[in-house]
């Protein structure tokens, strides 16, 4: 039923045409604005327990668009099998990736730390989706369940021509590719909402508090359902924190923030904006309020195999100054609404991941639950002040160190030392 109704209202998807396909050789950060990404974060909420582990970004797309090649490049030593045929990835591959942050080494050097530990994100290579996945086509239901387990979606879209590599739909058409994936996510969410609404109609809540939550969930799902039928993702619906909490157990696919990864050719590396397909992805992403990163999965894969000393020369030969992977990782970090604070001492300097808006006790809890339970105060120095002073002791002498209490909201780049008693 959901598929019939939605098919009538969502943009139609062009049928596969002739064959033309992938070549991948290039990369570049295309369009990133902090303001734009802040609109994507949709007030996501995670527990300190989950933040203390790596959050997951799922790499999705149609078969043979370069997902596994990109995954291999991102994790460098990834073992995903990249091959020229659909469904070469059956089980999702997971790799933990460091978030590039030059501040980490600066602090480590100042503190003469024995080691520096960066923040990290887990990337998951999920097998290719096809049209009809929500009805089981191409092992679709299994793959959709893998997407439910991630916190954000990186949708790889092919933006280069190569007749030697098979495209599942026979034509390079980014708009159609995006529509296919998005439509399957919408159908899957609609099916799940319909099943949940049937249960809610029976009203099984046993106490007044449960009834209030059920009503909130029902109200939220009705609005989300209408948005999906209108072709809009669940994340476009304005919900209260209470409503978000009521529906979060459904892990709706279209509630997750999305970045479109335009996979381009080497010839487009220095000027990706000149690629017609990239422009199409940018226009579509703008309408959907999603981020865009341009990258060449194959070039990044080749780059990762070079000795560190040769990488910069390779980049210069392509008329670019940096690899696109760092930007992709940072963009993923930003779209999840994550922030970094540091602890720094002789033993180690470490970057810790928190959600924007977390208080000092919550940030302490990311290190250990005892830190949050017994929190007393946090000795805090802004990153720039710490660098200018050179150490905690010097910052204290210069009056740059602050004693922050339980209500303090941790700021990006804070260097912190927690005092607690359990």
UniProtKB/TrEMBL annotation:
- Residues folding into a coiled coil are none
Tell me where in this chain the OBG-type G domain is found: 55-315
A Pfam family reported for this protein in Swiss-Prot or TrEMBL: YchF-GTPase_C
Q: Which domain of life is it from?
A: Eukaryota
Q: Please provide the record's keywords in A-Z order.
A: ATP-binding, Cytoplasm, Hydrolase, Metal-binding, Nucleotide-binding
- Summarize where ATP binds, as residue positions: 64-69
Q: List where in the cell it is found.
A: Cytoplasm; Plastid
Q: Which SUPFAM superfamilies match?
A: P-loop containing nucleoside triphosphate hydrolases, TGS-like
Protein task: Hydrolyzes ATP, and can also hydrolyze GTP with lower efficiency. Has lower affinity for GTP.
Protein name (Swiss-Prot/TrEMBL): Obg-like ATPase 1
Organism, scientific name: Cuscuta australis
């Amino acid at each position: 039923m959901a598929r019939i109704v939605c098919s009538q209202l969502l943009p139609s998807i062009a049928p596969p045409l002739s064959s033309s396909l992938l070549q991948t050789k290039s990369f570049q950060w295309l369009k990133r604005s902090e303001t734009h990404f802040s609109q994507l974060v949709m007030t996501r909420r995670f527990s300190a327990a989950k933040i203390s582990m790596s959050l997951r970004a799922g790499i999705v797309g149609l078969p043979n668009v370069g997902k596994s090649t990109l995954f291999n490049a991102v994790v460098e030593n990834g073992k995903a099998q990249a091959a020229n045929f659909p469904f070469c990835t059956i089980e999702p591959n997971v790799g933990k990736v460091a978030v590039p942050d030059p501040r980490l080494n600066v602090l480590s050097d100042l503190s003469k730390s024995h080691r520096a530990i960066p923040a990290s994100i887990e990337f998951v290579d999920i097998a290719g989706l096809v049209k009809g996945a929500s009805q089981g086509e191409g092992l679709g239901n299994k793959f959709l369940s893998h997407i439910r387990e991630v916190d954000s979606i990186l949708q790889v879209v092919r933006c280069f021509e190569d007749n030697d590599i098979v495209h599942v739909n026979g034509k390079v058409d980014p708009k159609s590719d995006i529509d296919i994936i998005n439509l399957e996510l919408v159908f899957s969410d609609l099916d799940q909402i319909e099943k949940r609404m049937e249960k809610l109609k029976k009203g099984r809540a046993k106490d007044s508090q449960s009834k209030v939550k059920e009503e909130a969930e029902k109200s939220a799902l009705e609005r989300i359902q209408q948005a999906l039928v209108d072709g809009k993702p669940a994340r476009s619906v304005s919900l209260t924190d209470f409503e978000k909490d009521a529906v979060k157990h459904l892990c709706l696919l279209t509630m997750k923030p999305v970045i479109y990864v335009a996979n381009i050719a080497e010839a487009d590396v220095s000027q990706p904006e000149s690629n017609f397909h990239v422009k199409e992805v940018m226009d579509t992403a703008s309408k959907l309020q999603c981020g865009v990163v341009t990258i060449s999965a194959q070039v990044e894969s080749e780059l990762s195999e070079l000795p560190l000393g040769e990488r910069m020369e390779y980049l210069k030969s392509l008329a670019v100054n940096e690899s696109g992977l760092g930007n992709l990782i940072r963009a993923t970090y930003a779209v999840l609404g994550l922030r970094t604070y540091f602890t720094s001492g002789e033993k180690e300097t470490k970057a810790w991941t928190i959600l924007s808006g977390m208080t000092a006790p919550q940030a302490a809890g990311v290190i250990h639950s005892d830190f949050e339970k017994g929190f007393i105060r946090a000795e805090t120095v802004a990153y720039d002040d710490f660098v200018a002073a050179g150490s905690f002791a010097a910052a204290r002498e210069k009056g740059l160190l602050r004693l922050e209490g339980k209500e303090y909201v941790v700021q990006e780049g804070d260097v912190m030392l927690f005092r607690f008693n359990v």
